[in-house]
Amino acid sequence: MSRRTCGLTLRGLACALLAWQVWLVWHLSTYGVATVGWACDSDGCGSDQLAVVAPEIGIASAVLLGCLAARFLHGATAGAVIALSAGGAAAGWYDAVADGRVGYGTVTDFMLVVPAGRHTVSGWLAFSWSVAAAGCFVAVWGGAVSLRRTAALRRLRGDFTTAQARLEGWRPVRGRRGEVTVVFHDTRGARHSVPVVVDRAALDRPVLAVYDRARPADPGRTRVAVPRRRPLRPS
Q1: What counts of helices (H) and strands (E) characterise the chain?
Q2: Model confidence pLDDT, tens digit, residues 205-232
């Protein structure tokens, strides 16, 4: 196993363990909230139960998971982590109801860094599922943007290959997209200059030409990919 493969495997395992932790901590934050014992004095109220600080631990774990998972999820990372956290919280409410800890009409507090207010369990469930739905939408949108920017699906096809390239010129087309000329050499060493449409962000990044092996000069079969990592240059 190469060093890169080993590193990706360990990173994937760490992501899986962190995702499990995020789910468990957010589950605990809602499952145990109704039975938290509070001790109050002249300085205020506090508790030594883990459920009280579970949201803070959940947020920290989610941020760490996002940093590690970005290598795999790209633009879908933030939405996926939000949806996972909200799903864990919703599952905690359902399990608390199933175990008789609370009812759907029970009014309870929920600490989310600061007191988030007093609402019924049904209200908290509606809020949790709304956040989860918003997270899924952000994940899908971010994933679609990443797939387009990195040309990931096209690069998986056997009749396409990639080559290091440079972009020349810029003619605005719509919004942040414009027409440029991508210059690259195919596998036989032949030079090609093909007009393509790219995001403006590609102008300041190393790029790859993704082209059809059989028709490398076909504009309709050529795309520009912006890899997340800078390609290694031969020494």
Answers
A1: 5, 9
A2: 888 889 988 888 888 888 888 876 554 4
